[in-house]
């Protein structure tokens, strides 16, 4: 699970490296998802997971590819687009507010009550955002970047129930393949329409894109293997390694500093994530532990 979290956490810094060298975001993501799809489809042919029920149809059914791919493509686009304005560490911690949005959504829908623990967690999440935005070293944080990354977190919170419904009755590898293949198709259409698919500045940018695909496939497989052993709660707790790993790579690879606001705000948000893993008496809402 730690390996999976580190794979996920490496995507943002690699995207910054590729975009800084002049490669378009849509082209980067096309090659990322294409590489990931090749790896996951190959593994599926090798392992041959059990088929889904006939009523669900195969994982490569157009509707399944569209639903799985479009949601993931939108989340990835928003989250990585925010890197134009925000440091990788700040963006990563702010994206991790999505469990708080899941809690709000489930409470509004009447699926899970807002008990004391969850109110404290929501306060921590909002306080973490305030700490990042209001810190003296946060003057350079562009409001548009903050809006984009928080929108990405909200969209992901809305995407989780959709993924949960797609996973019902299907092998997890099938859903992973649908996400990768569907994402490839959507990003390919985008990059072809802008003429950027084959506009590759150099080997470093292209290599960073392909490496993202390999890491994405590895993160899917590591997540599924870890989840089977650890269960939901310990999986969620272990996954909090991700934003800290992203922060470390931002410092080492991108020379991005870490301000006091990022440290305090990130700690508050991670505290909220841990609190939100505590069970409640009512029937649980959809798990927030879904791979991206």
Automatic annotation (TrEMBL):
Pfam families with a match to the protein in the record: EamA
InterPro entries linked to this entry: EamA_dom, EmrE-like
Gene Ontology CC terms, in alphabetical order: membrane
Domain of life: Bacteria
The keyword Transmembrane helix belongs to this UniProt entry's keyword annotation: yes
Keywords, ordered alphabetically: Membrane, Transmembrane, Transmembrane helix
Ranges for domain EamA: 2-132, 145-276
Segments crossing the lipid bilayer: 28-46, 66-87, 93-111, 118-135, 141-163, 175-192, 204-227, 248-276
Protein name, as recorded: EamA domain-containing protein
Species of the source: Gemmatimonas phototrophica
Lineage: Bacteria, Pseudomonadati, Gemmatimonadota, Gemmatimonadia, Gemmatimonadales
């Amino acid at each position: 699970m730690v390996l999976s979290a580190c794979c996920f956490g490496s995507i943002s810094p690699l995207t910054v490296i590729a975009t800084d060298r002049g490669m378009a975001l849509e082209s980067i993501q096309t090659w990322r998802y294409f590489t990931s799809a090749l790896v996951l489809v190959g593994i599926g042919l090798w392992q041959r997971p059990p088929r889904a029920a006939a009523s669900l149809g195969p994982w490569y059914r157009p509707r399944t590819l569209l639903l799985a791919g479009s949601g993931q493509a939108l989340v990835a686009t928003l989250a990585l687009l925010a890197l134009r304005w925000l440091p990788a560490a700040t963006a990563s911690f702010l994206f991790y507010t999505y469990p708080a949005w899941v809690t709000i959504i489930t409470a509004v829908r009447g699926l899970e009550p807002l008990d004391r623990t969850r109110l404290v967690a929501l306060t921590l999440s909002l306080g973490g955002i305030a700490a990042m935005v209001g810190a003296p070293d946060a003057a350079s944080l562009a409001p548009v970047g903050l809006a984009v990354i928080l929108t990405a977190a909200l969209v992901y919170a809305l995407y989780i129930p959709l993924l949960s419904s797609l996973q019902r009755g299907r092998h997890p590898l099938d859903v992973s393949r649908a996400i990768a293949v569907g994402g490839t198709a959507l990003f390919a259409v985008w990059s072809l329409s802008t003429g950027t698919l084959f506009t590759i500045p150099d080997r470093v940018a292209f290599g960073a894109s392909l490496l993202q695909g390999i890491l994405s496939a590895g993160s899917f497989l590591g997540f599924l293997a870890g989840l089977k052993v650890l269960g939901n709660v310990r999986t969620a707790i272990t996954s909090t390694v991700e934003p800290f790993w992203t922060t470390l790579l931002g410092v080492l690879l991108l020379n991005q500093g870490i301000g006091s606001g990022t440290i305090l705000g990130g700690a508050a948000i991670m505290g909220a994530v841990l609190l939100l893993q505590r069970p409640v008496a009512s029937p649980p809402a959809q798990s927030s532990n879904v791979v991206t």
